[in-house]
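From the methods appendix. Each design record in this collection lists the tokenized structure first, followed by the designed amino acid sequence. Records were kept in a plain field format so they could be parsed without special tools. The example shown here is representative of the layout used throughout.

RECORD:
FOLD TOKENS (373 positions):
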């Protein structure tokens, strides 16, 4: 680390998010910086759900209650802009909001956030679940036969985290079935990577050439959760294999620079947020105390940690001057920056701060253990 600690970097990223993207209301965020008239009325429901998580990251790291207040204000703004409703037509969007609600429940202890997460879970099951192509959730209401990784990976996490907080067998059942769908339908056994979806065009085909970092991150997170629940090392082996393959396939230059291939808009857009989600789950994998003692992670630990550290250092070197991120972390931001792109930077720098805090904790524990003998 250079003179700025990981916590300093994360604080700078959070303040930059407010400075460059803050709207008229507390907690509100604009879709681009500088403001573009064509995005003035944009309502990016799922981006803002991740903004909630980013602010909770800052609160958990610092204990500063203003970060939690900002998270709650952003969450309230999502509902306000959604005409008072939690729900929309996209089941992955609602899954992201459920995860944000659970983070707020943990941070605040207010049960209304848990009730919101439960309501979102129930709505997704009622309107999006079917056994077509395997027990799974559709992408959106208008395409009930199209099943994809963002929706089912996210729902696996929502279900697992609700089970942890409620003990409900129904939540556990959906955590298992959603993960099984990813394993059986969307995992490429040759590479260990998760493809984007199946039956998008109604012909039963898979989008094998659509490989995105956030899908891999969701799978890593769901597998790590299954390992923590069961102790079955096969889940951890799968998580490590996918994390390693993601870095090797999608970030051969050391950063995620062009994972969108030819299928998504270049620069910002939804793709801008993808890698921030991967970093959340990669850090969770690296920070899992139980996982650190298993052969699968020990064999790849240097590779995974090396990528995690060097790429977030690359981000910081181009981010620090202005507080605006580029989609390619080796380059400086030029032109308008999308909120999605900025959020990836914030999420990654908060993940780096958690990683460094965990490393310091473990080093202190080892020192104290030696001192006792």
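DESIGN:
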């Amino acid at each position: 680390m250079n003179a700025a600690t990981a916590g300093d970097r994360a604080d700078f990223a959070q303040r930059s998010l407010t400075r460059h993207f803050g709207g008229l209301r507390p907690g509100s965020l604009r879709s681009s910086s500088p403001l573009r008239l064509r995005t003035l009325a944009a309502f990016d429901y799922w981006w803002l759900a991740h903004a909630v998580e980013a602010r909770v990251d800052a609160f958990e790291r610092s204990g500063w209650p203003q970060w939690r207040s900002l998270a709650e204000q952003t969450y309230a703004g999502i509902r306000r802009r959604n005409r008072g409703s939690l729900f929309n037509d996209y089941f992955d969007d609602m899954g992201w909001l459920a995860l944000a609600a659970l983070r707020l429940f943990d941070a605040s202890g207010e049960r209304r956030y848990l009730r919101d997460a439960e309501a979102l879970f129930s709505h997704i099951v009622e309107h999006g679940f079917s056994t077509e192509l395997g027990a799974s959730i559709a992408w959106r209401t208008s395409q009930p036969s199209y099943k994809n990784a963002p929706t089912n990976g996210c729902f696996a996490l929502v279900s697992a985290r609700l089970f942890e907080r409620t003990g409900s067998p129904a939540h556990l059942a959906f955590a298992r079935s959603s993960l099984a769908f990813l394993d059986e339908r969307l995992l490429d056994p040759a590479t260990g990577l998760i493809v984007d979806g199946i039956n998008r065009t109604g012909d039963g085909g898979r989008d094998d050439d659509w490989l995105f970092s956030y899908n891999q991150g969701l799978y890593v997170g769901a597998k790590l959760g299954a390992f923590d629940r069961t102790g079955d090392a096969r889940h951890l082996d799968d998580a490590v294999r996918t994390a390693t393959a993601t870095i090797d396939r999608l970030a051969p230059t050391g950063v995620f620079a062009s994972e969108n291939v030819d299928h998504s808009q270049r620069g910002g857009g939804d793709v801008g947020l993808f890698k921030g989600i991967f970093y959340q789950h990669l850090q969770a994998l690296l920070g899992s105390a139980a996982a650190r003692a298993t052969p699968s992670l020990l064999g790849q630990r240097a590779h995974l940690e090396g990528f995690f550290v060097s790429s977030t250092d690359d981000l910081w070197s181009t981010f620090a001057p202005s507080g605006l991120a580029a989609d390619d972390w080796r380059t400086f931001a030029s032109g308008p920056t999308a909120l999605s792109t900025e959020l990836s930077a914030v999420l990654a720098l908060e993940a780096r701060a958690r990683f460094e805090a965990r490393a310091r904790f473990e080093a202190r524990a080892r020192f104290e253990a030696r001192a006792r003998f």
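APPENDIX NOTE: The radius of gyration is 20 Å.
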